[in-house]
Each structure stands twice: as C-alpha cells, then as structure tokens.
Amino acid sequence: xxxxxxxxxxxxxxxxxxxxxxxxxxxxxxxxxxxxxxxxxxxxxxxxxxxxxxxxxxxxxxxxxxxxxxxxxxxxxxxxxxxxxxxxxxxxxxxxxxxxxxxxxxxxxxxxxxxxxxxxxxxxxxxxxxxxxxxxxxxxxxxxxxxxxxxxxxxxxxxxxxxxxxxxxxxxxxxxxxxxxxxxxxxxxxxxxxxxxxxxxxxxxx
Length: 206
Prior knowledge:
Number of helices: 8
Shape: globular
Distance between the termini: 36 Å
CATH superfamily of the largest domain: Ribosomal protein S4/S9, N-terminal domain
Strand order of the largest sheet: 2-1-3-5-4
CATH class of the largest domain: Mainly Alpha
Largest sheet: 5 strands, antiparallel
CATH topology of the largest domain: Ribosomal Protein S4 Delta 41, Chain A, domain 1
Radius of gyration: 17 Å
Structural class: alpha+beta
C-alpha cells in the first residue's frame, strides 16, 4: 500500500467516517479508530474536541492539507465579505486539484493533487502544475492531449459512486471542464456532514 493510500485510509479510521464515500474504506467494515487502543469505548467529546475534529475532517478531505495551508485559506475566508464558513468552502473548492477531482478526471483527491503536480492539466490552455492554484469562474480546465488515454482517467470517468456537481460543467469526451461558479456548502456533494462553523469556532478560540 502506498503512503498516500495508507494516509487516506488512516484519516477515515481516525474520523470513524467514510469521508470520501469510497466503497473500499475500512470504516465500512470497522468503525473503530486505528491503533491498539482504537476499540476502546468512545469518551464524550468536548467542544474543543468537536471543533478540532471538524477541522481535521475538512482538512483531511482535501488531500490532508498542511496546517499552514489550511490556516492561510481560513484567514482569507475571514477577510472576504459574507459568511466565513461559506467562503472557506468556496475557496477550498476553487483549488485546481479539487476541480480536477470534482470533474471526475481522477478517482481520489490525493490522485488529483498528483495528477496536477505531474503536469497533466491546463487552465485556459496554459499548463499548470500547482494543486493549490485557484481557478476563477469561467476557467476551462483540460487534460493535456498526451495524457487523455491514461488508465486512471478512463477508470475515474466510469465511476458510479459520485456525480459531477452543477457548479462544474464536464465534457468527458474531450476531458475538459469549466468552473461555472463558486459553490456554497449546500452545493458541495460531501458524503459526510462537514461543519465549517465549528472550524471557524476552532480558529477563533485558538
């Protein structure tokens, strides 16, 4: 098992939830956490614990971002007009790796980061290999011609476990997607409940 795959499953086990909705997630069989103490009775979680868990779950969902990256996105969400939680979700969904994942060009968020890193994607015709690159409304994201027959792409397109959300228009015959608009929390097809309000509370108090 690769380090990435191991990390992905460890997040699921730690949260006790199948946060990407994958059929192979270990929590589909075992709901307890990883490690030798994982089967102990669960203690009541404090408010701080709930906030920390909400932050770890959201941060983990987007490919296990570093704390520095995630805090920077939160700080920007806080500066923008409107609801900070909605802004946070919108900024996360505008990451190039998130758009590649949502467009079903790849199977997992981890694969999306690697796919962008390896230079398989263009934005408005220009090659971009930075997963955190922020797309804008109307931007066209396309898989480069030399990469369009990759097995991982063909497998992802056939996946029945998730659909392309309506804030992205995807044409899988051309391996091209358009970012239509920035979504809010209710628009994003998370398989589990995300609680950005608790993330905001966590950073406000810590």
